[in-house]
């Protein structure tokens, strides 16, 4: 009886640890994602579109260019990880 109780107690604490790990992992992922998003918008303004190099007052001449560039950056980062 004593052994059985101990096993259940151990199993419960293991489950709780798993839950905590999962929560902190997704929180870290989200933090990394927000950070990369922030960096994409904190680029120095050089008067030209980062995607097609057309003259513009911001980092990109249009939304399409910004999305294109962000996608390319994202894939470049994925490649580096591998
Ligand atoms: Zn452009």
Descriptive overview:
- The structure is a single chain.
- The chain is mainly α and about 80 residues long.
- It folds into 2 domains: about 40 residues; about 40 residues, no CATH class.
- Helix content is about 70%, strand content about 0%.
- The protein contains 2 helices and no strands.
- It is elongated, with a radius of gyration of 23 Å.
- The site of zinc ion has 8 residues, from loops.
What does the secondary structure layout of this molecule look like, with pairings?
Elements: H1 2-41, H2 63-81
Bound molecules: zinc ion (ZN).
Small molecules (ligands, ions, cofactors) in the structure = zinc ion
How many domains comprise the coordinates? Answer: 2
Shape: elongated
Element string (H = helix, E = strand): HH
Number of helices: 2
What separation lies between the terminal Cα atoms?
Answer: 51 Å
How confident overall, as mean pLDDT? Answer: 74
Poorly predicted residue ranges: none
The class by helix and strand makeup works out as: mainly alpha
The percentage of residues in β strands lies in under 5%
What is the makeup of the main sheet? Answer: none
